[in-house]
Amino acid sequence: MTRIHDMGGRFGHGPVEPGQPDDPVFAQDWHGRALAVTLAAGALGQWNIDMSRHARERLCPRDYVNFSYYEKWLAGLADLLVETGVLTRDDLRGEGDDAPHPLAARRLRAEAVAGVLARGGPADRPCPAEPAFIVGQAVRAMRPAANRLVDGGHTRLPAYAAGALGYVHRVHGCHVLPDSNAHGLGEAPEPLYSVRFRAGQLWAAPEHPDDEVFLDLWQSYLVPA
Amino acid sequence: MPHDDHDHPHALLPPDPALRVRALETILTRKGLIDPAALDEIIDTYQNRIGPRNGALVVARAWSDSDFKARLLEDATPVVADLGFFGRQGEHIVAVENTPQVHNMVVCTLCSCYPWPLLGIPPAWYKSDAYRARAVREPRKVLAEFGVTLPEGTAIRVWDSTAEVRYLVIPMRPEGTEGMSVEELADLVTRDSMVGTGLPRAPA
Fold it and tell me: In UniProt terms, what function does this protein have (chain A) (predicted)?
């Protein structure tokens, strides 16, 4: 069983509202501020991208549904700041102190922003072993879709693909394994594959017999078919 | 780290989201952990400097230069980096090409992964539950909501961005654009056409 964020294929949603091409990047000023605070706090180096995704995913389902996009970011950020000991609950209540923080030396300065954004965070790593699968090979996604290191933990295998038959389309090299990295268990790089699934493997009533869905899946998400 | 703490710290912040951001920013600034000028810089970068014009230039170049397109489809990351497009949320780029037989469409069903250096910050619809839930299962109905109807003979490939690989759709070059410059062609490339929910504009 996965979490509330894993919504691929879910029924019950209304139409997509495409908006206008010239809609502002940030619909509200606080949206931009929320993104920027999140990126700047991330630059303190106390968590990684997989931990921050997991922080949003493990909001309780009621909050996940009711919060707007950037509210989820803020909630995940606040939770991470406390869990990693950067801030205390008293700080969030506005009852903390303003004493110099041990991490202040790591503060992201305005002049460093361009460099930090340009560097990004590449996820590819040297491969610990040869990939087990080759392009064209038939594979099956693990079922159930679940983190197999931490019960209820972060995974990037969507539930809709669990158990489905697919074919390796491309090998991306080795990438950090989110299921491990999100829980501080190390980067554990593994071969990452682009896997092609026929829509009929995934859905009871596919729209078109030739439609396909491609997912990027780590080697441990797959077994030979 | 516990992953199910039902006494979530975030509930201690003010309920109004704008006030919640301000509270967090104030707390972190007072402790010397963030620099408000850095926040302004981040916002300015994504509001004014990095957006879909970058991706449009890549597409227009691919339309104009078959050798460039071949290299882009083979391994896009170094090719777009040469044009100055790299960095956060664009560390690993794959370009996929639309043809009369295949239409490509990109989604992130698990969150909101999107090629920031090429397209900027994703629009609200891309991050919506409706798009995330439906794009993989009923892409044709979703396309219709964007005003796009594909020929019956065109198959759809939906790319679910489940890892750190980010996808750029190379739409088909519109007819009647022979002899146009890369800059002129880029004006025809819409953001949505590079996500696969739209088609490029026809030339005037």
Answer: NHase catalyzes the hydration of various nitrile compounds to the corresponding amides.
